[in-house]
Amino acid sequence: MKAGNEYLKLEAVKISIVVPAFNEERLLGQSLTQMKSAADAFIRQGWKVELIVCDNNSTDRTAEMARSAGALVVFEPVNQIARARNRGAAAATGDWLIFVDADSRPSAGLFEEVAEQIQSGRCVAGGATVRMDEKHWAAEFFTGLWNYSSRMGHWLAGSFIFIEAATFRELGGFNNELFAAEELDLSRRLKQRSRKTGTGIVILHRHPLVTSARKLRLYTLWDHLKLLVHVLFNRRALTRRESCTLWYDGRR
């Protein structure tokens, strides 16, 4: 849907930025400030933007900080990332949803790329490559491996997903049975749908999402490898909170 080399200007588009947050008082303020600044890329298009934070049963000042930042705060009592994202999406009124993790900081350049993709009319969902906010050999190796796999296979990183709201709801959102890898499950269903409809999934890479490397500080490489092996040989592990401790043991 292009006119010559120019993207068509869409009228009355509304963007809903949805942030799942569990005990994120240390990083949430900085992340929300960056998201609001980056969202100027949409405002310049004449689009509307709303910011929604889902407090996923936090025991710290997460909800208070989100309200202070001007976000709409909703509550999800079951401590599960998929449910938190779905609860935030249920409160959203936008035409497009952007899911951003509470420890991640999208740039204005990344949001500008999202706007371009929405205007192009060629995709219904997309993600971005990622970059850790700290230098670490393991982080660089594994993020490099992930970024390559993501771009080649059109797999979405959970830390940043944009998707047409109608498509998200048509697919039933994130799988509430999964405590991890729910973004890969959504990617699989999106790719199946895309093959039928001819619409695409894009992985943006010019402006990688900056995300926290704290898991590399809080857990050893052995902890990560044990979890990976456990999941590879027992897929049902993803349906049990106790098997996904790197996300749910509360370390921050």
Q: Would you mind describing this structure in some detail?
A:
The structure is a single chain. With 252 residues, the chain is α/β, with parallel strands linked by helices. The chain has one domain (11-213): Spore Coat Polysaccharide Biosynthesis Protein SpsA, Chain A. 42% of the residues lie in helices and 23% in strands. The protein contains eleven helices and ten strands. It has helices at 28-38, 40-43, 62-68, 81-91, 108-120, 137-153, 165-170, 182-197, 214-218, 221-233, 245-248; strands at residues 2-3, 6-7, 14-21, 48-55, 72-75, 96-100, 104-105, 123-132, 160-164, 200-211. It has an eight-stranded mixed sheet with strand order 5-4-3-6-9-8-10-7, sandwiched between helices. A hairpin with a 2-residue loop joins strand 1 (2-3) and strand 2. It is globular and about 50 Å long. The relative contact order is 0.15. Residues 1-8 have low confidence and may be disordered.
SSE succession: EEEHHEHEHEEHEHEHHEHHH
Strand order of the largest sheet: 5-4-3-6-9-8-10-7
Gross geometry: globular
CATH class: Alpha Beta
The name CATH uses for the topology is Spore Coat Polysaccharide Biosynthesis Protein SpsA, Chain A
Proportion in helices:
40-55%
Tell me about the largest β-sheet: 8 strands, mixed
Q: Provide the residue-averaged pLDDT.
A: 90
Rg, please? 17 Å
Q: Tally of extended strands?
A: 10
- Given as residue ranges, the uncertain stretches (5+ residues, pLDDT < 50) are 1-8
The CATH superfamily is identified as Spore Coat Polysaccharide Biosynthesis Protein SpsA, Chain A
